[in-house]
# Entry
Amino acid sequence: MSKGSFGFSDFLLLETIPVLVKETGLDVYDFRFRDFFECKSIVDQHDAPVLLRAGPVENYLETASIVESLGMKLLVTERESKRASLLENWYPLLTAHTPMSRIYDQLPTVDELLHEFSFPVFIKGNRQTNHHKRSLSIIENAEMYESLSIQWEHDKYLHWQKAVVREYVPLRDVDDNSNPDLLPYSYEFRVFFWKQKLVGYGRYWYMCKDYRLHEDDIKPALDLATVAADIINVPFLAVDIAKTKQGEWIVIEVNDGQESGYAGVNRLSLWNNVLRVERREEPIILLA
# Structure
């Protein structure tokens, strides 16, 4: 079976889990399984569902069809991946735990926006932001919004997405941001779940100075992430949570774990815990 012929860099068996890997060239996404685990190359059909580790997948249905043509199926179905990746799908399930949001087919007019919101607002695409740019995300007044509307039409990351307007909730800061056009570094964490079992967590803003989850915050933070994971119910899931300046823990977003970057999560511990779950053993969570 030639992995290169369908655009992937490796197809391996991680104990009992077939993993189809596409290296992105970005350290936050990539992990060389063979450097840390004894893996076998998959050269023939395998009965177990296939896990992707591919970074953002442009056409999930096409990838699923390729895997099916090899006589196998993906661990995460297209419907599950969309439930985890698109705000319009996960937000209705998590309204009690995340800022109020509205999804529009295209950016609303200022009058339409102000019918339900007041400035400042947080704006993103249905699937993603543009690399955490502050000027395209935190909109403080009508003039900034008009500027965003013009940029949105030509932005390669945003123009093809539905627009999402969210209530702006100030978060607890962890570091002064040296780049004024990036979102503030906040007390935010990424939590991974494998088949509803917590398998790892770490700081979301891995590029700033080190910060950790305080002892008093561990239980409320991870409890909230677990509630979100149970509701979304996807085999491999990343949940991003943060603490507001008012001291409340909220869900920032969720994502298909197959496409999510590791952020500050210890990836070796993460994959060891995934294997522990597969062996029906309890994960060992490193404090982060």
Q: What stands out?
A: The first helix runs from residue 60 to 69. Residues 83-88+172-278 form a domain with the D-amino Acid Aminotransferase; Chain A, domain 1 fold (CATH 3.30.470.20). The first strand starts at residue 10 and ends at 14. DSSP finds seven helices and twelve strands in the chain.
